[in-house]
Structure formats: C-alpha cells, structure tokens
Amino acid sequence: MPFSKSKLMEFPRDVVVGHNVIEDILELCDRINIKGNGLVVHDEITKKIAGEKVVVLLSKEYNIRDVVVEKATMSEVRKVQRFAKKNEIDFLIAVGGGSVIDIAKLASHKLKVPFISIPTAASHDGIASPRASIKENGISMSKEARSPLAILADTAIISKAPYRMLASGCADVISNLTAILDWQLASRLKGEYYSSFAVALAETAAKSLIQNASVIKPGIEEGVWIAVKSMIVSGVAMSVANSSRPASGAEHMFSHALDRIAPGKAMHGEQCGIGSIMMMYLHGGDWKMIKNALKEIGAPTTAKELGVSKRDIVKALTIAHKMRPNRYTILGTDGITKEAAEKLIRVTGVV
Ligand SMILES: [Zn+2]
Q1: From the CA of 4, how far away is ligand 1's center (Å)?
Q2: d(CA 233, CA 6)
Q3: What's the pTM?
Q4: What does the pLDDT look like over 312-323, one tens digit per residue?
C-alpha cells in the first residue's frame, strides 16, 4: 500500500517573551509581515492595562480599530466577527486574559484572518493552543480554533496580574503529567493515535515548572518568564498533536464536572491541578510530587482551598468519565465508584 499519511500542525511564527516587550509590537508586526487594517480586541480592564497602549503604538503604521468584549461567549465572538467584517479587518490583536484571547482566537478562525496574542495574564495553557474555550447556552465548550500567528508576552505586565492567575496557569500545565498517562493508556488499550513528539513537549513544560517551583512566587518576574514559556510550549504540544490530548485527560474531565456541579468557585487550572493529584494516584504514579509542586507554587491542593465541598468533589469524580465519553482515560467507561472516590480524596489529602 502506498504511503498516505498526512497531518496538519499550525504553530505561532514569532514568539516574544520578556520585560517591556510590548514596546516591540511594531517590530514584531514587521517580522511577520502583517499588512492592512488591524482590530484590537480587549475588555474594559485590559484596555487600560495594555490595550490603549497597543492601539497607540500600532496606529503609527496601521489603520487600527478596537472593540471591547465581555465574557467568552459565542455572542461576543459573533460581535467581533460583525465588527471586523464591517471595518474590513485583515488581522486581530487580542490584548487580555484567557477570555479575550479565546474570543479573538475563535473569531480569527471564523473570519480566516490571523491573530496576534498579547496576554495580560497567564491563567491557563490556552495562550498558544489551537483551541478556544467558549460558552454556548451556558455550557463551556472547547472549540477548534487556530494558533496565534504571533505571541507577545510582556512579563512586566503579566507580573502585575493577580498571582492566583499565574499559579492556576502553572497547575494547568503540571496537569499535563496525568493527561500524558491517559493518552498512553488510550493508545495501548484503544489503539488511539499517539504522538511521542507532542508528549515530549507537554512533559518538558510540566517538568520545567516542577523543577523551578521555588522561583514561581508572587512578585518574582523571573517566575512569570518560566511559567509563560511553559504555557506556550504546552500549547505547541497541542498543535503538534492537533488535539488537546497531551494537555487534557481525566484531570480536565474532573474540572469540567466541577464546572457543572459547583460553577464559578475555582479557576480552571486550580481544578485541573487537584484533579491531577488524584488521577496520578489512580495511575499509581508519583502524586506527591505533583502535590508538593502545587503547594510550592501556591496553587490549591485541597477542596477547602478550592472553595468546594467534599460532597461536590466526590460527585465530580463519579461523573467525570461522562464529560467526554470518547476520550478514554484512567476512569475507563464506568468511572469511579462513590466509595473509591471517598478513599481517593482521603489518601491524597484533598479532603
Ligand atoms: Zn487546561
């Protein structure tokens, strides 16, 4: 049989991470050879933090418009699309946290125009990933989008965001360690497509955070530098896999279950971090290493720190396997029993 495999991998072309790099936005645009009319997407807060500045800097060479968005919902995505079409926009620039970036990411995918990501906070590994988390009819969904054409992450700006966000982003990346084990299991048991390159990247990103946990503290800009680079590499791992597999397994399903049972209590990465402690125990791996790293970074490791009751944690564990039935994980097709879930949270000290 002739060779017939083919695969798409889309990567950011230009990534700049560092102190005050916001000043270099025009040079970045020049390097990626972007042309035409630009639309800056930001929210009320990120507009003041960096959006206004980006508009001023870019306006020296481009025709720039801006649009203020709210929560990451489909109606906001459509709002950006309408605005972009009306103003004949050729590229988007997202200035903001996860929600703003997710909106711009999906809008750029639908509009078939490139987008530049300028994160003002780093609360999950979506900075560079080809997927967007958007709410539709009140339910959060991971949608196919596109990777940013370029990323400009200013550590001076990100270090001023609430530290809790950065710690949550780190926990999201550390949770790659259990996502990888789930993927290996699915590959062995179900013959699922598996990429050792994607796994190497996702694992390196997580381990870099564990090794550097002592530097990732409030007020240390070097910690932001290490954390943001890991989040970007984690996103690249998803681009290599062309799916979220290397960064999303049973720990993410636990987080999605919590989103339904106890919505708005904790951040995505915080939930995934705790999920990862528990799933690593189920895998028979070194769950204490994950727990210690999360503690050192200052991410939650208990239900109490998460602000969620014991009952809700147990419930989330027992329904997690239903969140994404075609994604095979350590939870199998039947999930975990209430009794086993209660033992799990006791042994790992989550409750
Ligand atoms: Zn995640």
Answers
A1: 33
A2: 23
A3: 0.95
A4: 999 999 999 999
CA of 132 to the centre of ligand 1 (A): 11
146: pLDDT confidence band, cut at 50, 70 and 90?
A: confident
Residue 35, SS3 per DSSP: coil
Residues 6 or more apart whose CB falls under 8 angstroms from that of 82 comprise: none
Q: Is the sign of the CA dihedral 64, 68, 72, 73 positive or negative? A: negative
How much distance in Å is there from the Cα of 23 to the middle of ligand 1? 30
**Helices assigned H by DSSP within the chain:** 25-31, 44-46, 52-59, 74-86, 98-111, 155-158, 163-174, 176-190, 196-211, 221-241, 250-261, 268-283, 287-297, 303-306, 310-319, 338-347
d(CA 224, CA 305): 22
DSSP 60: T
Answer positive or negative: Cα dihedral of 200, 202, 208, 211: negative
Distances (CA, A) of 224 to 6, 230, 296: 37, 10, 15
Q: How far is Cα 118 from Cα 96, in angstroms, rounded to an integer?
A: 7
Q: How far apart are CA 100 and CA 102, in angstroms?
A: 5
> How much distance in Å is there from the Cα of 248 to the middle of ligand 1?
6
